Amino acid sequence: MSGTDDLDTLLARNRQWAGSLTGSDPQYFSRLAHQQLPRYLWIGCSDSRVPANQILGLLPGEIFVHRNVANVVVHSDLNCLSVIQYAVEVLQVRDIIVCGHYGCGGVSAAFREQKLGLIDNWLRHVQDVRHRHVAELAAAGPVDAQLRRLCELHVLAQTVHVGETTVVQDAWRRAQALAVHGLIYGLEDGILRHLGLSMTSDAELAAYKESQPAASNPQRGTG
Ligand code: CO
Fold first, then answer.
1. How far is ligand 1, taken at its centre, from the CA of residue 108, in Å?
2. Domain range spanning residue 144?
3. Which positions are annotated as active-site residues?
4. Is the pTM of this model over 0.85?
């Protein structure tokens, strides 16, 4: 933002937007101010081209959102874990969507081992996924195809991480209806794709992990 003119433009756009919503539903904001009942939790990339509400055609109040660079889910990230806990235990969302995207700058930087500064430490988690799938990535074809595959593999790994959190494990143990899905978004066509991984129980999580090749499941290796 380079000056107050720019800020004024944003504020004007906001008033226009709020006016258009109350124009068709005068109680819209006063109703929302009292409570939110989102059905979904979205865990996605901070990328400005991947805004959860717009992509899904949802209004404010319909989806709870957590975004970070490269949609990473780490077992010790108090920020992400707090979002998941609040969403599952307080808001009682029914679905958690982990959404990555093709052309992700974070995944690309990790893939190319670019040095960008502090963020390299964060993207180290993406490199870990890459190292677990070296053979599969090499077999994926040209570099562009390898990068696309890494974007997918990264989403699948983070989706598993969500299923492994104590919050989701506890929810499944008490038979709370909760599904975790892995999706990927195409910047070039605006389309969301299901990566074939949805889990609604610890048994499904275990079955998915068991189905993975040994290279991506080091615990099963010979050590
Ligand atoms: Co990204």
1. 9
2. 36-211
3. 45, 47, 49, 101, 104
4. yes
pLDDT value, residue 215:
54
Domain membership flag for residue 219: no
E strands within the chain? Answer: 40-45, 63-68, 95-101, 179-185, 192-199
Q: What distance in angstroms lies between residue 168's CA and the mean position of ligand 1's atoms? A: 24
161 C-alpha to ligand 1 centroid (Å): 18
Specify the CATH number for the domain of residue 135.
Answer: 3.40.1050.10
Answer whether residue 218 is part of any domain: no
d(C-alpha 18, C-alpha 22), whole Å = 6
Residues in the chain: 223
Q: What is the pLDDT of residue 3?
A: 78
Cα(188) to centroid(ligand 1), Å: 13
Residue 166 lies in a domain: yes
Average pLDDT along the chain, 223 residues, taken 10 residues at a time:
86 96 93 92 98 95 97 97 98 98 98 96 97 96 98 98 98 98 98 98 97 62 41
Whether 113 and 130 map to the same domain: the answer is yes
Measured between alpha carbons, how far apart are the two ends of the chain, in Å?
Answer: 53
